[in-house]
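Next up, sample data:
>
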Amino acid sequence: MRIVLGLGGNALLLRNEAPEAETQRRNVEKAVAAIAPLARRHQLVITHGNGPQIGLLALQSASYRTSGPYPLDLLGAESQGMIGYLLDLALANALPDRRIATLLTEVEIDPKDPALAAPKKPIGPLYSEGEARRIAAGSGWTMMREEKGWRRAVASPMPQRIRQTQTIKLLLDAGVILVCTGGGGVPVVASNACGLRGVEAVIDKDHASALLAGALAADLLLLLTDVRAVWSRWPPEEGEPIGRTTPKALAAFAFAEGSMKPKVEAACRFVEKTGRVAAIGAIEDAEAIVDGSAGTRIERA
């Protein structure tokens, strides 16, 4: 079975966890330990989020006084390399007999996408309201409120085409376990006049993963995070986990922006367009989710 497996950024750097390099290395190793058995049984393409990491890189860039802050497309490429490297090492150690590759991936967007003028994608660490106001005043960044604090908000246009799709197919056909479309891919626009150019934005990893899964004719889109299933209501004590379901049934629920909502939307879009299966759940349950005994499984009605 061909699986596109998306690792959420919060699964690689846990909520409220300090963004230390060694911490991220340990989390990646735990994630790979959970998904390596799938690579032995299935054809695997791994994508990943980068919200905490690109936020950290943006803060580091803004701290330099001798140059202006780096644009988000460059920081997105940096995060692809950093997280891809950690995943590559962990996969090579867990699966020494397999070939592993990490591919820098560009994703085309519509330059007229209205999301470019409406920053709604949270990145980086949590701040108190006072800290958020000071940062916004000093940097011009847009800040948004979340359940437990404030984070920077950036534009997040919808992905239209993954430029390296044919290369990904070639590597898959050669038996390579592939890490790609990291952080949703580097957002670019293409024009006859200017060729390719990067965009000051971040693409949602879940929507990019669904687009990739469709382009690769994947049998399963598997979105892994730090919660065991989609819940009918959050916090967990106010709802219940949703097991097997359909896009139509999920449309009756309201999910949190920037966390579960894009996962559910991306999964439902994949199922509706392809007729194949999507699933959402916790990294440690990866095998059980694929086998249908854990997580939320979404199928066409």
